[in-house]
Write a structure and sequence with these properties.
It is a single chain. The longest helix is centred in the N-terminal third of the chain and has 15 residues. With 269 residues, this protein is an alpha/beta fold. A hairpin with a 2-residue loop joins strand 6 and strand 7. Helix 1 packs across helix 10 and helix 4 runs antiparallel to helix 7.
């Protein structure tokens, strides 16, 4: 079972899947907004995908494997129930594959700023992987020390990546390690245009389209979704409708949390 965090005590069930290098808690603000002050607006499950957060690591990456791991977790949390599933970026692809492989488990699907297509390679993430692997974990004395040594100049990106750094006590001393499976991601990035993480699994082409309702949220300032992606999206998800949020980049739910919460409230209603 994958590691999860629950927010809310009553209402419809909704699961959140994060992006590459993320964790389930990245959706905490949105989950609290949906659950409401008394926790009865929704039962939110923030999932750490495999190879992320406190979830187990994989020996080999596949979207099919990620989707099956999420399905098993949702079934264990609420046997026999269906879910609204929200996924961003890597989590969005996982959510799409989940809906195609396990349609009875997904009541509604929400895909955030990603399309069902091959993005070519992990080149845009290679620098992050290299920076993280270059951090001398054995020399770090504190989190502040780690932040000072980390080479990423963008403060927001630096904080996002360093959330993956975890301290554990051993022999009376703190030992630092990455929660993200960097070796797996580096091996995938080394495949170049054969990257599975950047790609889209051919196996789903043999599955029937997902016939449930789908909300496809795009950031108006994000380069991840092109106009021609709509045809591909509706081939897999015929009932998909698109919502483009002006002024939002790839991290739509961070840039426009109020709009995303309101859109999800309408989905749950």
């Amino acid at each position: 079972m994958l590691n999860t965090l629950s927010v809310g005590t009553a209402g419809p069930r909704i699961a959140f899947l994060h992006g590459l290098f993320g964790q389930g808690r990245n959706w905490n603000q949105i989950a609290k907004g949906l659950a409401g002050p008394d926790g009865t607006g929704a039962r939110c499950l923030l999932v750490d995908l495999p190879d992320h957060g406190r979830s187990p690591w994989s020996e080999e990456f596949s979207f099919e494997g990620y989707a099956d791991a999420v399905a098993a977790t949702l079934q264990e949390v609420a046997p026999g129930e269906s879910w609204t599933v929200v996924g961003h970026s890597l989590g969005g692809k996982t959510a799409m594959v989940l809906a195609l492989q396990h349609p009875d488990l997904v009541d509604h699907l929400v895909v955030v700023d990603i399309a069902p297509k091959d993005y070519g390679s992990l080149e845009r993430f290679q620098g992050y992987i290299d920076e993280m692997r270059a951090l001398p974990l054995g020399e770090i004395e504190s989190r502040a020390d780690a932040e000072a040594r980390f080479q990423e100049p963008n403060a927001g990106v630096r904080a996002f990546l360093l959330q993956n750094l975890r301290s554990e006590r051993a022999d009376g001393q703190s030992q630092w390690r990455w929660q993200a499976n960097l070796d797996l991601f580096a091996a995938d990035a080394a495949l170049g245009h054969e990257s599975r993480i950047a790609g889209w699994p051919a196996s789903v082409d043999g599955l029937p389209p997902y016939e449930g309702p789908v909300l496809w949220i795009a950031g108006g300032d994000s380069p991840y979704i092109d106009p021609e992606d709509a045809e591909t999206m509706r081939r897999y998800f015929p009932l998909a409708r698109q919502l483009t949020i002006k002024g939002a980049a790839h991290w739509v739910h961070t840039d426009a949390p109020e709009i995303v919460v309101e859109a999800l409230r309408r989905v749950l209603a």
